[in-house]
Design a protein that fits this description.
alpha/beta, UDP-n-acetylglucosamine1-carboxyvinyl-transferase, Chain, 4-stranded mixed beta sheet
Length: 428
């Protein structure tokens, strides 16, 4: 489906974004392997989270909803049942990778598969460490889905130096360790999202952390917990970008997750000169939450390197849009991970920028954008990638002539109400 986004005069008002997708996935999965009933409250978060919910149901987990709460009736670490057929993860890389860790320690064989996009995503990065623990996992010849996992409840402890700072890989190994009752020691060159560690601790697991190194103690039994899901920072970032770009904008985004491993985008745009204020910050369920006030700002270029990339990986396409209006040339490096997302986000971002009149270049692990440019407008191919679709919708708001976004419906993967929110907050 194509959607034409016309230029906006300003972005203003206030709103709360959908629930944090990363935390929703983990709350459902950790609730399923805990003992007792885990209660989850918060805004819903799109089709990817629904994929996780349905996969757990197919594995014998009861998940109910009443009085504004999702209740996961935990089965314990080894209580799942063998599914009747393959487990369909849809478009969700988080689902397939985190569930692989859990299923590696079960007593039955499972096949995980998904859509055409998931079949292109690399799975060796979880297969390798899980195999070192004694898991029996095979993939398609491409190294992707479908994955066949022959469960082994007697997995080994592992000490592992992660070649990529990936929260999904880290989480898969931790969940395998929890379900097998063994120790896990992990190290990485750079920090990555730590939602899994926070939530496992909330449920009683013993996890020690020292900089980018962590250790899960063996035999950690999980108890049920209550999780409040904050607003998704990555979803908020789209409208932060719009407000920064469009003159006269003044926006308040409420109840947003502000976990420091997720908010690298705030640090970068502040370095670019963004007028942003955090209000009413507090901690709930181990996560920092607050309100974000943002106004139109004049920006300058920055350089982003590998150390910063894990905390801004989902927002890097938005940096591409912001850089077009910034003074100077912005360069992003150490971001090769963008090439193995739902689409090759480096290639499609740069081609999309060129399609709307912006000078940009790509290289193997990043891209550069020349600033002080107008976003003229045009038609953009997003290859069915939800984040690219929403990124170029924001570019349309800040353009001279508007932008036609192909595959705009892909936004429903993570932000079903994105376009209605966009219409509500923008003045045309």
């Amino acid at each position: 489906m194509e959607r034409f986004i016309q230029p906006a005069n300003k972005i203003s008002g206030e709103f709360t974004p959908p629930g944090d997708k990363s935390i929703w996935h983990r709350a459902l999965i950790i609730g399923a392997i805990a003992n007792g009933e885990t209660e989850i409250t918060g805004n819903h978060a799109g089709l990817d989270v629904e994929s996780t919910r349905q996969c757990l149901i197919d594995l014998g987990v009861s998940i109910t909803f009443s009085d504004g709460k999702t209740v996961v009736h935990g089965k314990g670490t080894n209580g799942f049942k063998k599914p009747d057929g393959l487990i369909d993860v849809g478009n969700s890389g988080t689902t397939v990778r985190l569930l692989s860790g859990v299923l590696a320690a079960q007593e039955f064989e499972t096949v995980l598969d998904g859509d055409s996009s998931i079949r292109k995503r690399p799975m060796k990065r979880i297969m390798n460490p899980l195999s070192l623990m004694g898991a029996r996992i095979s993939s398609a010849p491409s190294g992707g889905c479908p994955l066949t996992i022959k469960g082994n409840p007697d997995l080994n402890s592992i000490t592992y130096d992660m070649p990529v700072a990936s929260a999904q890989v880290k989480s898969a190994i931790l969940l395998a360790g929890i379900c097998a009752g063994v120790s896990v020691t992990l190290s990485a060159a750079h920090p990555s999202r730590d939602h899994t560690e926070i939530m496992l601790r909330e449920c009683g697991a013993t996890i020690e952390k020292d900089n980018n190194n962590l250790r899960l103690e063996p035999g950690s039994e999980l108890r049920a917990a209550k999780f409040k899901i904050p607003g998704d920072f990555s979803s908020a970032a789209f409208f932060i970008t719009a407000a920064l770009l469009i003159e006269g904008s003044d926006l308040l985004i409420k109840d947003v997750g502000l976990n420091p491993t997720r908010t690298g985008f705030l640090n970068v745009v502040r370095e670019m000169g963004a007028d942003i204020e955090i209000r009413n910050s507090k901690e709930e369920s181990g996560e920092l939450i607050g309100d974000i006030s943002v106004k139109h700002s004049n920006l300058k270029a920055v350089s982003i390197t590998a150390e910063t990339v894990p905390s801004i990986i989902d927002e890097l396409p938005l940096i591409g849009i912001l850089s077009a209006k910034a003074e100077g040339i912005t360069k992003v490096s150490g971001a090769g991970e963008l090439r193995v997302k739902e689409a090759d986000r480096i290639s499609f971002l740069v081609n999309g920028l060129r399609s709307v009149g912006v000078t940009a270049d790509e290289f193997e692990d990043g891209f550069s954008v020349r600033g002080n440019q107008s976003i003229i407008g045009g038609e953009v191919d997003t290859d069915g990638d939800h984040r690219l679709a929403m990124t170029f919708a924001i570019a349309g708001l800040a353009s001279k002539n508007g932008v036609t976004v192909r595959d705009a419906e892909s936004s429903s993967v993570s932000y079903p109400s994105f376009f209605s929110e966009l219409d509500k907050l923008s003045s045309n």
